[in-house]
Write a structure and sequence with these properties.
Layout (H helix, E strand, L loop, with lengths): L3 E9 L22 E6 L23 H6 L4 E3 L9 H14 L3 E3 L1 E2 L2 H4 L3 E5 L2 E9 L11 E2 L4 H12 L4 E7 L10 H12 L4 E5 L7 E4 L2 E4 L4 E3 L13 E10 L2 E12 L5 E3 L2 H19 L4 H27 L2
Parallel strand pairs: 1-2, 1-13, 2-3, 3-4, 7-9, 9-10, 10-12
Antiparallel strand pairs: 1-14, 5-8, 6-7, 11-12, 14-15, 15-16
Protein name: Capsule synthesis protein CapA domain-containing protein
InterPro entries: Capsule_synth_CapA, CW_Biosynth-Accessory, Metallo-depent_PP-like
Organism: marine sediment metagenome
């Protein structure tokens, strides 16, 4: 039995200003036999109507070639942008992913499809993926949307998948944007999921890197940050141009080791590996923001560290809403 390697990338909107491969500066990192995962935070469709929201994302469906050509096996679509263009946008995205043989988790035509897992068998190991989100439109029995981040629901689904696989990966779109620390409630949930069978938790949504926790010899990545992504307000926040690619190696059904690969996103939204002193600086920063997580992050610490940025982002959101809609 040989090792199974997984590469996980953060937020992806599959677009560049110059219409080139967004991953051209990182493609040399990925071996042909590795599994490739990313958070697809856009709609691949030319149809549908955008709702009233601050940012709506849509990408030319033809850009699916950038996922195919770079070896992506699976993407998470449980996020707050997959329904930006309604059911039509979601259905088109699902259809083109299926036609391209790229699996997806976290959203669907109903709740049954949204919570469905995907299982790969590779190098003598079976690895399952599930995706959930705390933001966005939730799927129901007869309506489309995302798999909601519900503790009861995730534990139920995880226990069912756990019996079928050697390794269980749970993707969570959660947290507060532009904040470097997970909230105490996130840490509690992450640990509960590990206790109930998850081997690796991959977080995204904050658009910045958050700390990493090793819990019961399992791995919790609270936020990978951006990858191929950038919106106007990102410019106002420290760290939004830095992301993290993580390489995780599994052996005999457990995390054997992992590597953190910091990337910097350029003005064309392309990630590139950071090297030298800048790489060391980012890795030291990740180590620093991971320290409070190792025991238990407290509410008082979290509010102290995040209140200024959180209030700033909320005020900005309300000002945009007032300017656009008068309320």
């Amino acid at each position: 039995m040989s090792n199974l390697r997984l590469f996980a990338l953060g937020d992806i909107f599959l677009w560049t200003k110059s219409r080139v491969d967004p991953f051209e500066n990182v493609k040399g990192l990925f071996p042909n036999d590795a599994l490739m995962f990313g958070n697809l935070e856009t709609v691949l469709s030319n149809r549908g109507n955008s709702p009233e929201k601050r940012v709506s994302l849509r990408t030319d469906p033809g850009n699916i070639c950038y996922l195919k050509n770079n070896g992506f096996n699976i993407v998470n679509i449980a996020n707050n942008h997959i329904m930006d263009y309604g059911e039509e946008g979601l259905f088109d995205t699902i259809d083109i992913l299926k036609k391209s043989n790229i699996r997806f988790i976290g959203a669907g035509r109903n709740i049954e499809e949204a919570v469905r897992s995907e299982i790969f068998k590779k190098h003598g190991l079976s690895i399952g993926f599930m995706g959930f989100t705390s933001v966005g439109i939730a799927a129901e029995e007869k309506s489309s949307g995302c798999a909601p981040l519900s503790k009861k629901l995730i534990i139920k689904c995880a226990s069912e998948v756990r019996r079928q696989v050697d390794i269980l990966v749970v993707s969570l779109h959660w947290g507060i944007e532009y904040i470097f620390y997970p909230a105490p409630e996130q840490q509690k949930l992450a640990r509960v999921l590990i206790d109930n069978g998850a081997d690796l938790i991959i977080g995204h949504h904050p658009h910045v890197i958050q700390g990493i926790e090793e819990y019961r010899n399992k791995l919790i990545i609270y936020s990978l940050g951006n990858c191929n992504f950038g919106v106007e307000q990102d410019k106002n926040y420290e760290g939004a141009d830095i992301g993290l690619i993580i390489s995780v190696e599994f052996l005999k059904g457990r995390v054997e080791n992992y590597e953190l690969i910091p990337v910097k996103i350029d003005s064309n939204y392309r990630p590139a590996p950071v090297k030298g002193e800048k790489k060391l600086e980012i890795l030291n920063f990740i180590e620093k923001i991971s320290v409070p997580i190792q025991n238990e992050i407290t509410s008082s610490f979290w509010f102290k560290e995040t209140s200024t940025i959180y209030l700033s982002s909320q005020i900005e959101s309300y000002l945009i809403r007032i300017k656009r809609y008068g309320r």
